[in-house]
Amino acid sequence: MTAAPVAISCGEPAGIGPEIAAKAWDALRHDVPMIWIGDPKHLPDGTSWTEVEHCADAIGADALPVLRHDFPAPVTAGKPVPENAQGVIDVIARGVELVSTGAASALCTAPIHKKVLMDGADFAYPGHTEYLAALTKATRAVMMLASENLRVVPTTIHIALEDVSTTLTPDLLRETIEITADGLRDQFHLSAPRIAVAGLNPHAGEGGAMGKQETEWIADLVADMAAQGLDVTGPWPADTMFHAAARSRYDAAVCMYHDQALIPIKTLDFDRGVNVTLGLPIIRTSPDHGTAFDIAGRGIANPTSMIEAIRLAHKMATQT
Q1: Cβ-proximal residues to 311 (8 Å cutoff; 6+ apart), any chain
Q2: Residue 152 has pLDDT above 70, yes or no
Q3: Distance between CA 107 and CA 1 in Å, rounded?
Q4: Of 47, 49, 63, 279, which is least packed with CB atoms within 10 Å of its CB?
Q5: Which residues neighbour 126 within 8 Å (Cβ) at sequence distance 6 or greater?
Q6: Cα-only R_g, the chain
């Protein structure tokens, strides 16, 4: 039986989303069924596309299958307008509905521009992840960045570094580790996932000399979760967690803050990193980059991360 297609949301139409979606179709059309949700006027000139009414119509299509979603305002590459903000939001919701009902197998979201959504539609969420959690009624969603070389999960994400130590709590870290373990089992099909936990401070606090969170509660929390049967270790010094030998000892690294997680994966595999949302009742991936307004409309955007995001979404949806 042919798998349902991966639904691709258009993202910010003034960015590179439509371009990389068209390029991804060209690269994957023979391997991955997919369907693009958006306004076909936003696709690059010369894109071969066909309008379809249902996701099932995308199977075997000879051109990029499009579920039409018209936007009210004209689009100029690199210059987003608030009048189109609600359309961007509605496309995401439409994609979630398609996956939730089984019409699509997974959702791959093109980049959005959060300020434009906030200005144009009073978007009340810090980003895709939180909005998807609200749409699917998930208790909490967790962001994982994944590539062939590394999987990382930041426990705290888009907050100032000075706020990390107060935002980071035992409950938050425990929940992040649990969601990561569940995601590795359910979506990556690892029966006994291995998780390495980074320390918060340099040298994982060095016995309290460089910070006390590790000795006061992080080490005890990790030990308690290990005693309950989870293969989790740490806290480890972050500066020695990401070389090849260290990476071979775990399936995912749970980190304490944004840059601690994202710097190593972007250094190791900048173009092929994929954003995977764990904790949702649906599969969602996204390219690990932004709207790239500076190069939008020039035909030079690198589609590799989008290709990998679609490929991984399809693999997660069909792998048993």
Answers
A1: 28, 31, 32
A2: yes
A3: 20
A4: 63
A5: 114, 157, 158
A6: 20
Residue 126, both tokens: 């810090």
Indicate the domain borders of the chain. 1-141+280-320, 145-271
Identical topology for domains 1-141+280-320 and 145-271: yes
Residues 230-245: b if buried by 16+ CB within 10 A, e if exposed: bebbbbbbbeebbeee
Structure tokens at 312: 């991984």
Whether the Cβ atoms of residue 307 and residue 27 lie closer than 8 Å to each other:
yes
Q: Cα–Cα–Cα angle for 110, 113, 48, nearest 5°?
A: 35
Q: Residue 124, class by beta-carbon neighbours within 10 Å (0-12 exposed, 13-18 middle, 19+ buried)?
A: exposed
State in Å, rounded, how far the first CA of the chain is from the last one.
Answer: 14
Residue 215: partners with Cβ closer than 8 Å, 6 or more residues away = 205, 207, 208
**Helix crossing, 128-136 with 85-100: angle to 10°?**
50
Give the pairing type, strands 64-68 and 49-51.
parallel
CA distance to 91, 96, 135, 181, per residue, from 282 (Å): 16, 8, 11, 16
pLDDT at 320: 58
| Percent with pLDDT over 90 in the chain | 91
Give the architecture-level CATH label for domain 145-271: 3-Layer(aba) Sandwich (3.40)
Annotation: CATH topology of 1-141+280-320: Isopropylmalate Dehydrogenase (3.40.718)
pLDDT band at residue 1 using 50, 70 and 90 as cut-offs: very low
* 255: confidence class by pLDDT, cuts 50, 70, 90: very high
**What is the rounded distance in angstroms from the CA atom of residue 119 to the CA atom of residue 116?**
5
As a whole number, mean pLDDT of residues 112-141 equals 91
Task: Give me the pLDDT at residue 63, please.
Answer: 96
Task: Give dist(CA 21, CA 307) in Å, integer.
Answer: 8
